Structure formats: C-alpha cells, structure tokens
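Issue: ligand-bound run for beta-D-fructofuranose - logging full I/O for the record.

Environment: standard queue, default settings, no custom constraints.

Inputs:
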Amino acid sequence: MSVLTTDSVHLRAPGNWINDPNGFIYYKGEYHLFYQYFPYAPRWGTMHWGHAVSPDLVHWEHLGVALFPTKDYDRSGVFSGSAMEIDGRLHLYYSAVKYDQPKPEDIHLADGDRFETSQAMVISPDGRQFDNWGGKEQIIPVLTDPAVGDKKDTRDPKVWREKDGYRMILGSTRDGSGRVIFFRSEDGEKWTYANQYASPQLGRILECPDLMKTEDGYIFVGSPMGVTADGLSYADQAMFARADFDPDTCALSLREPLAYLDWGLDLYAPQSTLDREGRRVLVGWMRMPKPVENWADGRGPWNGMMSLPRLVQVRDGKVCFPVHPDVDACFDKPAHGLAPLAEYKPVRLRATLREGDSLNLGGYRIRRTDGRIEADRSAVFDSLQGCRLTACTPVLEGDSCRLDIFADRNLVEIFVNQGEYVLSHVVYGLGTELEGPVEEARTI
Ligand code: FRU
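Outputs:
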C-alpha cells in the first residue's frame, strides 16, 4: 500500500480488508478515523488498526497501520475500540485478542473459534506516533467471572467523559443473549467494574456499543448478532434506541424497542464522535460480500468502506440520521446525471417522490410504494447468492418524501426526509443512465 493513498467522500480500504470504524475523533484540528484492518488479503484476519485523517470529513488521507499485535495478550488481534483526548494526549482503547491456538493452516483465524479477550490502551502524544512495543497497557484483564463478563466475547470499548471522569461501555454476552458492561475511571487509565445490562433484544452477542448523551437522555447504538435470522446475509445488524442512563450507577434502560439504524441492512458496527462544532456524527462499516478488483488507482483488490458521516439528531422526539452538512456542501458542481461515476466521482441527486414514482439509477431501482421507500439492487449486484437484494423503509410519517441520494461506484445511500430514514446499499457495476423525477444532480 502506498502511504499516499487518498479517498474522497467515502473512506475505502486502502487495499485488502477493512471492517469497523475505530477511534473516530476530532483531535488537534483534524478528524482521525481508525479502522479494523487486515493488510494481507481482501478478507478478515489478524486485526490491525489502520489510520486515516481528514481536515473536513470529506478528504481522507491514509496513514497506514497505527496499531498491530506485539504483546502476548494481543498477539492474535487488535480488535475494535475508541479514542479519547485527555490532557492533550490521544488515548486509544481496544480489545486485545489471544487465540488459544491458531488454525494450523491459517494462523489468522482461531482454531475452533477459541480465544480470550482483554481490554488495552495506547497513549499517543500527537495522534501520529503509536508506540506498539512500549506504549501499550492492559487495562482490564480477561474477565474470568461469568457474572461480570464473558472471557471470550467481551469487546469494543467505547469511552466517554462524564462530569466526574470517564465511563466505558463494552459489548458482551451472557447465557446466550447480548449484554453490555460498564466500567468507570477517574483518569481514563485505571478502570473499575460498575454495572451491566442484558436483554434478548441485544441479540446473541452485542458488538460495538455506543452511548450518546443528548439534551434529553441518551441514545444507545449497538450491533446485536443474530437478529435478522431469515437465512440471508446479514444476520447481525446495527440498531439504536433512546435510553436512560445514570452516570452514578451506570444503570441503563432502553425507552423503546431497538430499530434498524440503516434500512439497507449492509451497515454495521457504527461509531460516533463529536465533530468540530460539537455535533454528534456517526460512521458505519459498509459490508461487502466480495472485493472490488478493478479500482483505477491501483490499490489492488479491496473489501470494505465507510458510510458517509451522518449526524445523530433528535427531531420531534425521533432520532434522525441526516448526512453531515460538510459532506453535503462539498457537492457544489452541477453534474450531468450520473456521468461523473465514469470518472470515479460521486454524485448527489435530489428527488421528491410521490406515491408510485420510481427512479432508475444505473440499474439501481428506487420506488415510493405503500408509503415506503423501496430499493432493488438485483441488476447491479453481480447475481450474488444469499444476499438481500431488496430493502425498504418503514412507512414514512408525513406526506413529504424528499430524497437526497449519494451514489458512488459501489455504494448508494438514500437519505429520506433528511435522515428520517436512511437506506444504504453496496452495489457492484452501477451504470450511468438515469430515469425518473430527479430535480438536481451534483458532484464534488
Ligand atoms: C464487529 C467486530 C467487533 C470486533 C471486530 C473484529 O464487526 O466483530 O466486535 O471487535 O469486529 O474485527
């Protein structure tokens, strides 16, 4: 991989494989986005943290590998986690994985899926230097008491600041259903167990939890495994609910049933942070069933990309995910339909659909029917088996149906009524023809 690789609008694997966003933070005047990275092949394996920076959430510069296994406790992988600025230094929290035994013919996977997990931390003085040998510290050892946590499946520390210090939420499992576990710390370095919350709503295992403070309570986001069990991929989904949380006791309760965060059902393991202006912004991993082989910039086969950054907003008591305004604003050049896609440039389309109206975006179909937005990617998905080809939103609340559609060669993201619902779909081979009542097309 060249360290000069850059991306605009969507952060893509710099080659090979990426999954979850990690350590998303606005720090010392730039956005940092780390991600789960397997540098050797376009498939999942021993996890590293790849690193990219951006001045504006639009232009991304890949900086290569930030974290990689060096210790006995993280020898099999540096799993997901988060970032926090404390006294000017960047604290990275991650899950450290140690396989009981690697597979004899593939050391990047655990034999029999047996491993143990602890939580670890690296402090960087500047967000550019990461001392993988001298700077790591195991902050929460493997949890051996099943009442406290699961020694294998407890992971993905998300840390945030409260008035009197820091809290950490971890994803985990107990007796076959998902749970989250809370730790607390005064200084962000020494952590003690505080509380936990388990529910069948949290799937089989809960991954990548995030708890966001709003003006009225909290929003819980997490990725429960095994919630969409209709035999099609994917069964694991990113979900959210408004929640109450007491920072003193770390008692969590959900105010409402969990809902899908993105109705395309490709987005997973999202993570949020505060943007330059203190607004809550979130990105998620767009899962891809096969790599892209033929990208023009020579990065080689790549699998995995990030969604557009979205704000997390509560409007009229409803959680909405509109596209981040800085991303929206960079689409400032008129475009001739989807023509820019031929030059690997993204396009933003605006359309207002009435009941029965439909759009054809290079073979990708969008339709307003029965009060919902339906999308069908069957013509632009290379006949991939076992994957969901269609998706739809719930019934929209009012009459209005304004769509902001962002299309890239391999991703279509539909923001309905400024984030009332979002539907994002990975695609392969999107064409450039455009049919339907589109009001405006723009590119960057
Ligand atoms: C979610 C996840 C996390 C884990 C990471 C490993 O996609 O399974 O729970 O930390 O990916 O790559």
